[in-house]
Amino acid sequence: MPALKIRPPTVLVVEDDALIRLVATELVEDLGFAVFEVPSADDALAMLELHEEITIVFTDIHMPGSINGLELASLTHQRWPAVGFVIVSGEHRTEPGQIPPGAQFFSKPYSPEVISATLLQMATEAAGAAAAAG
Q1: Whole-number pLDDT of residue 126
Q2: What is the pLDDT of residues 63-116, one digit of tens each?
Q3: Rg, the chain, Cα only
Q4: Of 48, 50, 65, 76, which sits most exposed with the smallest number of CB within 10 A?
Q5: Are 7 and 33 in contact (CB under 8 A)?
Q6: 0.85 cut: is pTM over it?
Q7: Are 25 and 49 a contacting pair, CB within 8 Å?
Q8: Ramachandran category for residue 97: left, alpha or beta (phi over 0 → left; psi -120 to 50 → alpha)
Q9: How many CA atoms lie within 13 A of 67 on its CB side?
Q10: Torsion over CA: 38, 65, 115, 124 (sign)
Q11: CA 111 to CA 109: how far, in whole Å?
């Protein structure tokens, strides 16, 4: 009988500021998640294409490239509706309907404890949905 393959949840961190990306990546890794990191929403879409194991995207809104974090969330939700989103910004506030269902928005500077709790909750919900589907 083959052994069960249990992978940690995988989070994609999308942030153009290298120092903030490093801090966010360390936060995610400290929770036991696997993590990918990219500096733009354009790069994030490419990573999502390559890595079906990504279950949560942790993204800033404002960054260089052809799309921003809100557009990334919308496009991703259309193509991969099960992917969860944590969206952050120090400059932008969201209005109802601007983020996909189930996504969470936090203003910068955000509380690492609140982000951690949100990521853990999203991972638990994703695991439950996967178990119910499979």
Answers
A1: 81
A2: 989 999 999 999 999 999 999 999 999 887 887 788 999 899 999 999 999 999
A3: 14
A4: 50
A5: no
A6: yes
A7: no
A8: left
A9: 16
A10: negative
A11: 7
